[in-house]
Amino acid sequence: MCRAILTDVGWQGAQSALIGRSAELDRLTAVLDAAAGGLAGVALLGGDAGIGKTRLVAELAAQARADGFAVLVGQCAELGDALPYLPLADALRGARGELREALDARPVLGRLLPGGTDLGQESTSGLTQQQLFGSMLGFLSVQPVLLVLEDLHWADQSTRDLLVFLSRMLQTEHVCLIGTYRTDDLNRRHPLRRVLAELKRLPSVTAVELSPLDREEMTDYLVSIGGTDARMMGEVVDRAEGNPFYAEELLEAASDGSLMTDGLASLLLSRAELLSDAAQRVLRCAAVAGRRVDHDLLQQASGLENLAFDDAMREIVSRGLLRLDGEYGYAFRHALLQEVVYTDLLPGERTRTHSEFARLLTLREGAAAELAYHYLASHDLAGALAASVEAGRRAERLGAPAEAHRHFDRALSLWDRVPDAERLAGLDHTGLATRSAAAAADSGDNHRAISQLRRLPPSAEVNERLAYFLIDADEEKGAIAAAHAAVEMAPEGPVLARALATYARALYWSERHDEVEPLATRALEAARVSDAADAETSALITLASLAALADDIPRATRLLACATAESSGNLAFDLRAIFTYARVQYEYGDLGEAAVTADRGLRLAHETGLNWSTYGTDLRFLRFLIHYVAGEWDLAEQVAAGFGIRVGTPAEAVLSSFALFVEVARGRPVVEERLSWLKPFWSSDVLVSYMARGLAAEHALWRNDPETALEHVNAGLEELIPNDPAIIRLRTTGLWALADLGRASEADDFLERAKLPAVNGPGSGTRGPLGPEGLAWLARAEAEWHRAHGRVDVEAWRAVVEAFDFGFVYETARSRWRLAEALLASGDRASALKEWERAVQDAASLGAQPLSAALAELGRRARFTSPERPNLLTGREQEVLALVAEGLPNREIGERLFIANKTVSVHVSNIMGKLGASSRTQAVAAARREGLL
């Protein structure tokens, strides 16, 4: 009955209220709907301060007004029992029209308004309260009313009594009563706790508690209030921990170059200031310890005896400032609370407490990270350096490269200020910096690794690592120069083996490609002589890549099986080997084996914390591509759910660009937003430019905008070298655009340049035949070239279908669409219908909505009818479609069929995709034409 009509709240505020809260709003709306039907109800809405209760209630109030309810809102205040019925008096002041007349006719209620008799003086007999409650019940029966009592954690005893009375006595009145309260203000002895426990047992009461928003919802919220910088928003999301109000304040502070607004700091500190002196002392010690602290450690640092400490902790925990964490520790309820308490400490107090924690932690094992933190804060730089290096080593062992880099980087920043730093660290400055750079690269920050290495004095080891990371960053010239310098400087042994292997890798795509095999072979021999397993693995990968380029797949797979058989001692090399093995299997059509190999690599990356390393990232998008090519699009979208839209780093942008494959092919609305976030990376990352530009071109073509598509194609081609096989797909997309535009003269050059990578390898060499997918794209380029010249070439399109039929479900269906067109134009209507029906079925099963729409248009133009064609919809989809045709929204469809709103949404999307519709109305119309309704 109720609809979200945004009348009383601004668009931005309403949108913000709904982000991540649709389920909670639905539950509140259900209570309101029941009240509209004559079944009064109560909803208790709880959540931490700033979690979004007020925004949600404002949205409900807007819906209530749109449905003819009078809305009365009363606010409790932090005054204890000094002013009884304060929120009720506040609410009654908002009575208008018929309600105001009813209020004037009830003198007992009128006493609550300004100028009325103080009820607090008369309530001891019980008569006045009984009269008041009876008058209130009669007042609420006059017309439909939404009564909101905000901040019940501050309510007086009389208001709590009224809440209980109304919750029990409201029956058939058209009344919806909403009470809000802060869960973080309810200590164990709070009087509202007992009331809530009693009310939640009543069948007429609905309890709704708002939990923190997840990362995606928080990012959506920040965008809705004007956030644009992905890195800044990422930091805000981390610090806000799911609280929208905190996020809003932090975003404002970050925009001004500060850490926190004064208002937010005051709000957080106000709760700590209510503590006793002993409890404040303990809380300050806990803030110095960090977000979490051990019980014994905190007690020792506080200096309190057992009983005094226990009393202080009971007070702190009961007020919700710290919570129990694990079996024997505590954690701040929110990280920002720890931050403001810590910031409020005096400098001397802070330093002394850090020193005490450092003293206590030296007696414990495995506390290097905490020790480094306390040593640094207490200005013990020597202790901080030694502890930071040990913490970095420990993080490496635990598979936490980002943390390892942070610890090593801190040690490097202290190096020049600490006498005898090399002895304390256990390695020289170059060794520590190289280790820090490797950790940065393993966490996905190649540019940070490169920058760190470039600041070091040149050596064979430094130049080899620099060259390796430059290759991953697509800086070919710099990589070749650094690798050559490493070989020239390296002594015989493992260092030379690594330098030779990296030099061979650096030259692979260069004009000096012919030098690669001799160098890789020499590296392999040197590695085996010097027992350098990592260099051996690197050389084997390069030799296998050469074999694959020459179409010697058996040799390539033998070499890669050898490279991946055992660990090389370098996880980055192991992941590179597994990725290359899976890539070769994928490119040559062995999708099943490629999936097995990729899954193995993903497990290794996850277990070792290398998800964001170069090849950890590559394995993730390769696994996505295998699902995509095999037609497992639901699984592909599950993988892509981890590819963020609002990206802030090159690694995130790479993954995000791959998600476009399915999103463009399924016609998802998110495509435009994803492209807008990827745009800043187009000029700095070749892979992102190629992927995003190519798929932006396809997106434009599905929208009948070939000019824009051609602009994307030409821009993407500028970033690629002429013999890169990626050119074939991009130029094929360009030929599609030229064919739609009828520009045959440009098509000739596009086709010739598309053919170059099919015969020319890196440098000046030749290459063996392309894999199945490459050959299929080349066949399609030729077919699009014929189309650009206005020729109907059935055999060209038949060859494309056969070429993609190695297992590429979507491209086979898309090629059948063009084949059906060509057959129809040639007069072979029966064959055209056959190809069309197969394409329709495959497009529907994939949910490829743009392709389904194109096929539907072709079917209308051709007047194809196929009575024997099986129903494309499942039984559940038929049920959903019938209710969509009745005009029901998703929520009501879910209630009718007893399924979740999200499930309904998935079914509706699938129906639209199968019927080639872009809206619910179009889907219903198409279903009627098809005889499905």
TrEMBL record:
CDD domains: LuxR_C_like
GO cellular component: cytoplasm
UniProt-listed PROSITE patterns: HTH_LUXR_1, HTH_LUXR_2
Signal peptide: none
InterPro entries xref list: AAA_16, P-loop_NTPase, Sig_transdc_resp-reg_C-effctor, TPR-like_helical_dom_sf, Tscrpt_reg_LuxR_C, WH-like_DNA-bd_sf
The entry's keywords: ATP-binding, Nucleotide-binding
Annotated TM spans: none
Record-annotated HTH luxR-type domain positions: 866-931
Any one GO MF annotation of this record: DNA binding
Any one GO BP annotation for this protein: regulation of DNA-templated transcription
Full protein name: Regulatory protein, luxR family
Record organism: Streptosporangium subroseum
Upper classification of the organism: Bacteria, Bacillati, Actinomycetota, Actinomycetes, Streptosporangiales
